[in-house]
Amino acid sequence: MDQPTSSLTRRDLLKLGGTALAVGATAAAATPGTASAQTPKHGGTFRLRSHVAPVHFDPHQTIAFSTMIPLSFAYSRLVKVKGGSAVVPGTQPVENDLAESWERQGDTVYVFKLKKGVRWHNKPPVNGRELTAEDIKYTYERFLTIKGNGNKTVLEMIDKIEAVDKYTVKFTLREPNAWFIDRLASTTTWIVARESVEQHGDLRKPESVIGTGPWMLQRYEPNVRISFTRHPNYFVPGLPHADGVEIILSSDPAAGFAAFLAGEYDFGPEYGMVIRRSDLDVAQGRIKGLGTRDYIVLFGGITAMKIDQEPFKDVRVRRAFAMADNWHETLETNAWSMGKGLPNPLIPATLKEWSIPIGQLPPEGRALYEFDPKAAKKLLAEAGYPNGLKVPIETTPGYGPDWMDAVQVALRNWKLAGIEGDLKLKEYGAFVTSAVFGKFDKMMLTLRGLTTDPDNYFVNYMPGEPLNSAGVNDPKLTEMIKLQRRTFDEKKRRDIVWDIQRYASQTVYYAYGPSVSAVGAWMPYVKNFGPNIGHDYGGRLMVAWLDK
Amino acid sequence: MRRYVFRRLLVAIPSLLIASLIVFSLPRLLPGDVVQLMLEEKAYGKDLEDLRAKLGLNRPMYIQYVEWLGQVARGDLGESLWTRRPVLEELTRRLPISLELGVLALAFAIVIAVPIGVLAAIRQDTLADYAMRSMAILGLSVPGFWIATLCVLLPAIWWGWSPPIQFTAFTVNPWAHFAQFLLPAFILGIASAAAIMRLTRGTLLEVLRQDYVRTAWAKGLRERVVVVKHSLKNAMIPVITVLGIQVAQILGGTVIFESIFGLPGMGRFLFDAINQRDYPVIQGVNLLIVSVVVLMNLIVDAFYAFLDPRIRY
Questions:
Q1: Smallest Cα–Cα separation from A210: which of A363, A87, A71, A35?
Q2: For a tag on chain B, would you pick the N or C end, based on fewer CB atoms within 10 A?
């Protein structure tokens, strides 16, 4: 599992232009090209586009993906998500990075043996010295203690970190947590150098980016580009294949697509290295042999209702709202999906190892995904609203026109069931600082899809969590969520996670919109590249090469 | 003249003060709190008051305003709330890019508009006049960002070519640096050109009906002399006035054009700052824009004397 919270902020979602509804075709229609049978070629520079500049470069002072993506080229962590064309998008297979090996001792102790001879980038003040267990200890102690680290929850189960010897690190957890290794593979847990922090005060400046990763940050021109050059002493022999990486910062989507068609970028220009499905024909017509692969994105809509207030105290009303929403139509009206995508249960469908198939839900749960305004109307009548009802609904146009299209589809279909939505649009900045934290009147529509960690999607259900905007306090559910965290047997844990989703589909504390199927795209000369969810661009490109 | 300029500069001070009050208070009236936004990206809802105090946003607004004004008077526009980088330093880096774009756009506007306006006036009510006026209306009514998007996208779809959208610094490649401004400046100049063209035509027609022009015709002077030497200069006074106003419009237009063409100028800086509620940046950029507009209008006023010898300050 690539990790949790680092991902998108709501601001980032805004910048994505509300693509969130996006599709998700499943099929791996790729030109999978890719590589396995070929001999890797060295040299060249990968060119990719980012529509947003990094907030800054300190991974412990932001959760912005615009920071984590560039850092994925320069830093390493103990374990990482595997890259390459063979990896199925939506899966997050974990492999060792700086760790030579690791073992769990009991339920709460993890011991990591580090690879020997790992060198930091040869930049002052670190000057290419060898990485040791003290660096790991320093990094995670900073991670957990520095003020303002929004990702602290990722590793807050850690009680103690010890550098047992030069190459051995021991983690002791407060309580068992089966997601610990997945969380260490997160794109927030980069190992940083103490000397750099001490020299610069923090890691916000580009010159403070000194890691052990495959490329070194060479130059940052604000709002223009970020350039990386190969780390000559990278600890994996033969990697990376490319000599450099250049991230072009260009905020206009049309200009981004034009530059892609003109061969200025090696990968799809949108977030996630994808292109819009509506642009696919044009791109394939212009670029012969274009590599593509469909995959379901993490984003999707979420409807939060105040469950301690009328009319949403009654589960039949909540159910009626879900049943009167037509996810097929939502996908059909979305330019990114053009009808392709999947409905989401509690865990987003793209996390296919953990998301329960809709067909496995109980009958009441399955019914939520079968558009049926008549049945919804009947439910409302049973709940005491035979003439329908009028509800204020808050959202923001800040997620962009695609999002507002989806909102309009929902409003129209709700009307068929006798529900009149009184739409209250809030300015983006105001919305993300109030409604998403539960400050709304009756009902709120927003986007989710911040993390690749299934466990993180349960925060909406945990009492006391700021993002529990519906105000859920269900002891049975809380206990189930805690139980899956304590369950190491993956099959048993999956069973519990599926049970949670079954239970959630019956209680309908939240209703979920679909996710679109995006089209990952790359130039024909890029080999051994496989798109995936998450922000480990560096990990994916490290094993890819240019065959020009 | 000196006295006039001095007097105008004195008048500019209250203008700038009023503008400073507006640019200071308006961003704070927007819904959405920068401190909440920052915490939303960091630690959910914790240390709200602490961060507010750290950023100096916990004091009464008038005290913040007076302090900011004092800083500005000392040449310090403050620091970005997000990056902690000095606003002035960022502006120094970005202003030349926006100015380059703006000046080129204005140059295009003049080069396109004045000859066409003159031609439309001297060929009044001919097919050419109608065609040129129609073009002007089209230029006024079609949004510049739409034309820009098409100019970027269509060549890429048809021929696999797109204009440069990666910024090249002058020191790296002077020609590439200049070339990347040509298309955005041309498109940005079109809307202004349309307005200037219509005004040039209208004022020139009026001048051409003056007695002294009729006298010039009666003397048997050639058309070029009558139009260019005797009429155009007088017709230019209102056009020059409008040019001053167009500067503000063009500077506003840079916000979108810099985004489309990947130019790291002031417009993009302002756009990001508004989204982030980065008050010092919003204040700094707007104050600078106001100052540029005030200065441009001062230059325009001073230019009147050159165009019309009867005007004395």
A1: A71
A2: N
